[in-house]
Amino acid sequence: MARLGTGIGWRPEIARHVEELPGLDWVEVVAENICPGHLPDSLLRLRERGTTIVPHGVSLGLGGPEPPDPARLAALAERAGALGSPLVTEHIAFVRAGGPLTASPRLEAGHLLPVPRTRDALDVLCANVRIAQDALPVPLALENIAALISWPGEELTEGRFLAELVERTGVGLLIDVANLHTNAVNRGEDPSAVLDALPCHALAYVHVAGGVERDGVWHDSHAHPVTGPVLDVLAELCARADPPGVLLERDDDFPGPDRLAAELDAIRAVVTAARAARTAPAVWGAPSPPEAGPGTNPGSGADGDGGAPAVPAETVTAAAEAAGLAASVAAGAAAADARERPACGAPPAAPGEPAAIGTGAIGTGTATGTGTATGTGATPASPDRSVPPATEAARLRLAVAQTALLSALVAGTPAPDGFDRGRLGVQSRALVRKRTRVIAKVAPELPEILGGPRFRAEFEDYARNRPLTGGHRQDALNFAAHVLSPAGPRLEPAVRRRLGRWWRERSRPAPPLRHRAGVLLRGGVRRLSGLTGARRAQASPATSSETAFRRPV
After folding, report:
1. Cα 296 from Cα 299, distance rounded (Å)
2. H/E stretch holding 91
3. CB 107 within 8 A of CB 403
4. Residue 508 near residue 515, CB atoms below 8 Å
5. By C-alpha distance, which of 302, 157, 331 is closest to 235?
6. Terminal Cα-to-Cα distance of the chain (whole angstroms)
7. Per-residue pLDDT tens for 461-474?
8. pLDDT in tens, 163-211
9. Of 28, 40, 437, 42, nearest in space to 209 by CA
């Protein structure tokens, strides 16, 4: 995989700040949010400067039961070409359900939902990944996602699931350490165990993001500062391998440039300290740091047990404060790296033998479109592509299971057996809140017309048992139609008129401005034609029929 360095997720709201960040090596952009023929000026300037830009897809749904949509694959490939990207990335998730396989209405989640870690799901995922790899012009890497819920009857751990996915397809891995922390809090999964099972050679890059805990549930919000426990997991990963790239994600409640720079400095400090610790010669007689107890969570450093400190908003308001934070994080990472750790995916060392250190071939070689890596370290075996594709029976079983889950989350149907109903409720409410935020961005006139609090209350009530079945723009139109209908809330006459006008203008087949311009243009042509005809009539008398023909309509 290509060496990327330190980067940030490019978003329109912080485009100017991103261009001015010091030491920025690359950016990642949500693939579905850009149009190849009309790239934002900020991205064009970054590309001209030589900044690497990686498209990050969110809508393929490779973990779903159906093969990936050829049109979506072609769009992702087009964006990779337009940006000159060395790779593209997506998620190990499903984003829609229903449809022909289950003879039920198509449902959209509007969110990345976890796939069950079963053999059926792995077979289907591998088949879908191969289809995507064959359609894309550059290597593909997939991201582990955060989850609020767990599937019953899972057969594989997350680490084993990811390792077998790489073995069978050669796909790269985008490891999100914030998602590992989220799953540690919400699902009781040990990030260290996941990292121990990962194949180092497949690591493409790393995501780091902030979140917030509410009522014992960690929400991967991407709208809060990066916390100490997340930096602890990053240090754990960097103790095992040198990631080709590390990227800060932020999707909402954007801070100023100083706070963004401070968080990037903290991330660099962890990576730099771990790299120095891996390459430093061993010091004989140096005391080893105490081993963590059996109940110790690797993300518990915020409680003062020696891990990286938390990064609350008030401590990252300026670059000067970031310097102290980076130093403390670096010290924590160096201490954690003072003892040898096994390489990602390496078997435990035999008694009396040194463990393998994860310097591997990370970022030192190249990757082909089929996932075969070469480098200065040990070359991994080529993926086994002789495994038959997923059977139709496996696709059908997965389709039924995912449709039942998504229907319970977005349509109010009974919860499938084996799921934690309390957690399903948390996930369902989170989906409604996220859908509300997206509609407020897609159609900002709606909160303006209805008022922010009223819009949120009315939309959440509307969305609670009305699944997203099309795009978000259609969702906004459907909501407006509902509010205007007799079943909708009582509206003041002025509000009803404004909302009705907004709905009519956006429901027309042609954009309103273009339509009005066309009417004015045609009217002008008619008037010009009439004036010309009148002048000709004065110069040369005409019959009444000719005069009528030339008369303006």
Report:
1. 9
2. strand 88-91
3. yes
4. yes
5. 331
6. 67
7. 999 989 998 889 99
8. 999 999 999 999 999 999 999 999 999 999 999 999 989 999 999 999 8
9. 28
